[in-house]
Description:
Number of strands: 2
Shape: globular
Strand order of the largest sheet: 1-2
Low-confidence stretches: 1-15, 17-33, 448-459
Mean pLDDT: 78
CATH topology: Amino acid/polyamine transporter I
Structural class: mainly alpha
Distance between the termini: 68 Å
CATH class: Mainly Alpha
Helix content: over 70%
Number of domains: 1
Amino acid sequence: MQPYRRWHASAPHGQCRLSGRASESESMSEAAPAPALTKSRAILRSLAAIGPGILVMLADADVGNVATSAQAGARWGFRLLPLLVVLIPVLYIIQELTVRLGIFTRRGLGELVRERFGRTWSVIAGIGLVTVVLASLVTEFTGVASIGELYGVSRNFCVPLAAFILLCIVATGTYRRIEHITLWIGAFQLAFFVVAAAARPGLHRVASEMIDLPMGNSGFLFLGAAIIGACFNPWMMFYQQSAVVDKRLDSRDYAMSRAETAVGSVVAQLLTASVLFAVATTAGPLGIGAHLQTIGDISVTMKPLLGDTLGPLVFSAGVLGASMVAAVVCSLAMAWGVGELCGLRRTLEYQPRRLRWFFLIYLAGTVFAAALVLCSRNLLWLNILAQVANVFTLPFVMGFVIVLAATCLPGRHLLRGWYLWLTVFLAVLTCGCGLVGAAQGILGGADPMAASMLYRDAR
């Protein structure tokens, strides 16, 4: 077992440094090149490193993201499509920092927050993490409930079953096994590309709507904030860094992990854009956005694209894949994050039965999320409100990641110079736009569900 390592917040130039034997060994490993690998072994090692980046991005395109982008397409056509595109580089930059921190510090985000910022900030981060994970679990349960009801299965059966499966996975599964299974489940999300490919909206309409942005409309800004919150789930940062550490990736895997994160960022936003594109094509011109109250309602809008049977079926397969992937990833993020913030370094995976307190909290949270879905009438807007809630926790988590990357990384991997200021600028701009949009939608006095109808009537 490696010696316990302590981070010094008072290191020169604001950096964190390691103490004791671990400091010497890591300094030597930083200076000495990694052993050369044969070509075949290098390829196998690169393939083995793939997983955390793709998986976290598939989880990003979860039911909340689907619901938000579908409502945006139904109410505003293609007007919010540019926002999805411009968020791609920001998503990559932030998630790549978690890869860098995980590989070169060999610690999860929760561990670094606890040791760098202290117990008070650990408690704040822990409360925020649990809150956003529970909100995400609510969105995943709504997806399962809506698809079940679309095919005549009561949510009273679907939701408890989904909750039971999640509890079993967390209690008995190991990370590597869960990663492999979940990646295969995530393949169902490719169904979103199928429905988008069948859409034929017309280039003129797409282009005209993309430049017609009603920035003074509170409903438009509210959905824009929801899209930002859906794109940057705070638990994604906890998950990817802890997963990188758990897989014991090192400097030889850094290039592949960066490439995987870049590809995943593009794929995640394309999946989301596919849903917006398809719904904007079928539902946007008809003005039926106000009637989209469930994921099942969104599935019905796919009928003009692929037929009365195949359209909803293909879309439903994508939603179920998104639900399960995101539920597994966010629950693992909470398991790792809470354990790290409490000083229990990755023991949540290896010794689950000794952490009864964690499973009691997880059980209570899962039951609460499931009960909320069972009692809620409008499941779609419950999803969107959960994404808006992410906006209010996002500045804290992004701030943690940026500060840690600027102080706790060795040598040339430290976040500094123009890239540091670019990262800060993009993070502040993203969080600021999200907060302003959420505030405008909440305090502006307009009903986000009706605002687009008024705008359409005015035009």
